[in-house]
Specification:
- The radius of gyration is 19 Å and the shape is globular.
- The longest helix has 15 residues.
- It is mainly beta and 331 residues long.
């Protein structure tokens, strides 16, 4: 039996068998495809009115109204939600689920699921093109990236050759290159988005997590959770040129829109490290979080940061003062 057929049968069994059971104590039990891998995700709508959050240990996806600080909607029907990304128009957002093996297309106004894009078990990180026409989806189980045409909601290519690509995925500013983390082997694969083929790689990371890239496309940042550092990569040279010591178990590599600061959530410390650019030095350590990871988003004016906690509460941070202004959470 081919590996492709085995994967298809496994996915079918998972969809048929993955349900919620009531245990004798009344607690809920979830059957998951890859429940041993934990991550969280936070996306803010382009108009900055709502935030959509998830944690892979919890089946629900929450929508916060950022004006009122309250939960506006609870989206059920997920098992291990992995990543959330808004379309540039803000009219829809996409939620990947590695156990269901799909990416759900959700209408932002009604929070109704408009489509379920099939990826296969292991659907993880997502990135969307600036024109909103193409979605790239990591599959950490199949070691692939699926390319979706969002005008037809159909897959148009499957790129192979990865090694457990998880949440780390981002497009170069002009969209010609796709950078995909490989958790196994600690590499970043560089994909030519015209040919939909891997054209090169960058190595030397240590339990790589989140990545980001500067607006000029020259510098890439990556979190090394195994070395407690952030790696600075010269994209043209395809080489790490500097590492910045941060807190314990860093996951994030979030760049402010004005590119003045780089943030990482330190999972074991429950802190946030703030790195100033271009000096590449840690200028502040913000405390008071609960299991922060890579789910860090900035407002367009670079004045405010939102950091997701493990309990799905969201901390609002003043970027100038590095102070937590408030925290919103489930009521």
């Amino acid at each position: 039996m081919t590996s492709k057929r085995c994967l298809s049968l496994m996915w079918l069994c998972l969809v048929l068998q993955t349900v919620f059971f009531a245990s004798g104590s009344g607690a809920a039990f979830r059957a998951t495809f890859d429940g041993q891998i934990h991550n969280n995700s936070l996306a803010v709508s382009p108009d900055e009115t709502i935030a959509v959050v998830s944690y892979s240990e919890r089946p629900e996806v929450l929508v916060y109204n950022l004006e009122t600080g309250r939960v506006q909607a609870v989206l059920d029907g997920f098992i291990t939600p992995r990543n959330i990304v808004f379309a540039p128009s803000g009219k829809v957002f996409y939620v990947s689920d590695s156990s269901l093996g799909i990416v759900a297309k959700v209408e932002s106004a009604s929070f109704k699921i408009l489509a379920r894009l099939p990826i296969g078990p292991g659907a993880f990180g997502t990135a969307i093109s600036k024109d909103g026409k193409t979605l790239y989806v990591n599959n950490q189980a199949a070691n692939t990236v699926t390319v979706y045409d969002l005008e037809s909601d159909r897959a148009k290519a499957v790129i192979t050759g990865f090694a457990q690509p998880r949440q780390g995925i981002c497009l170069s500013p002009e969209g010609s290159k796709l950078f995909v983390t490989n958790f196994l082997g600690d590499k970043v694969a560089i994909v030519d988005t015209q040919a939909n083929k891997i054209e090169g790689e960058i190595g030397g990371f240590n339990q790589i997590r989140a990545i980001s890239i500067t607006a000029d496309g020259k510098t890439l940042f990556a979190a090394n959770s195994g070395a407690n550092t952030l790696a600075v990569v010269d994209v043209a040279r395809r080489a790490i040129v500097k590492t910045i010591p941060v807190g314990h178990d860093p996951y994030g590599a979030a760049l402010t829109p004005d590119e003045q600061f780089l943030y990482t959530g330190n999972l074991k410390d429950n802190t946030l490290s703030v790195i100033a650019l271009p000096s590449m030095e840690v200028v502040a350590t913000v405390t008071g979080f609960k299991g922060p990871r890579q789910a860090i988003v900035f407002t367009k004016d670079s004045q405010t940061a939102f950091v997701l906690n493990e309990d799905l509460s969201v901390a609002k941070i003043d970027v100038k003062t590095n102070q937590v202004l408030s925290t919103i959470g489930p009521q």
